[in-house]
Amino acid sequence: MGNPETIIFDLGGVLIDWNPRYLYRKIFSTEEEVSWFLENVCTPEWNEHQDAGRSFEEATVELLSQFPQHETAIRAWFSRWDETIGGPIQETVDLLAALRLLQKHRLYALTNWSAETFPWAKRNFDFLHWFEGIVVSGEEKTLKPRPEFYQILLNRYQVDPVHALFIDDNIRNVEAARALGMDSIHFRSPAQLRDDFQKRGILSGLQD
After folding, report:
1. Any idea what DSSP says for residue 22?
2. What burial class does residue 125 get, using C-beta atoms within 10 Å of its C-beta: 0-12 exposed, 13-18 middle, 19+ buried?
3. For residue 181, which of 144, 147, 158, 146 has the smallest C-alpha distance?
4. Rounded Cα–Cα distance for residues 7 and 112 (Å)
5. How far is CA 190 from CA 90, 91, 95, 134, in A?
6. Could you tell me if 143 and 52 are in contact, meaning their C-beta atoms sit under 8 angstroms apart?
7. Which residues neighbour 124 within 8 Å (Cβ) at sequence distance 6 or greater?
8. Residues 116, 56: contact at Cβ < 8 Å?
9. Alpha carbons 182 and 198: distance in angstroms, whole number
């Protein structure tokens, strides 16, 4: 563990506050209804297929055949998708800005994100243009924690995993990166990430 040459960020949950509850709290009356819907209808497992390249049209048709009584809520997942975004996680964006200012590290992003909705994110978050490259699961038709998805970034940008640091809020994705030889941080808060950066000497030379 030390100061890496390359730092690879996850986006949702690290730099961007994504939570479908933001949308469904506007559609359902109680938190219990929201929880039931997200645990039984628009589930994380269902959403992962879109992250891996399935179209929202196909995904919507699948759910409507099973839960026709929830048509409005199901269609909202895509038609009102922007309402699932709370905004930037500003303290982490500030850390990214500090790394950019230091100019000591190659900066990339590796994200599980639908190819249909990622263009919205690029239009709305300027900091996404700070990366040398972003690898999007929906465009590649694979996703974390599959090893081949990480390998796409490593190969495309000639990144040596031994000299790379990976950051993700999902522990299974962190463990998959570690299995490929990358130092990895399980993101839980911007303050914790800053501490982990300082332990590795990543922020040395930065004026407070």
Report:
1. H
2. middle
3. 147
4. 17
5. 9, 6, 8, 21
6. yes
7. 85
8. yes
9. 18
Sign of the alpha-carbon torsion through 123, 127, 129, 131: negative
Residue with token string 């809020």: 169
| Tens digit of each residue's pLDDT (9 = 90 or more) over 122-161 | 999 999 999 999 999 999 999 999 999 999 999 999 999 9
Taking each continuous run of H as one helix and of E as one strand, the counts in the chain are 11, 7
Which neighbouring-strand residues pair with 85? 18
- Give the domain ranges of the chain: 6-17+87-199, 19-85
Which residues have C-beta within 8 Å of that of residue 181, sequence separation ≥ 6?
A: 161, 162
CB 162, CB 181: distance < 8 Å: yes
Decide if domain 6-17+87-199 falls under CATH 3.30.430.20: no
3-state percent breakdown (helix, strand, coil) of the chain, nearest 5? 55, 15, 30
Are the beta carbons of 131 and 108 closer than 8 angstroms? yes
pLDDT tens figures, 11-36: 999 999 999 999 999 999 999 999 99
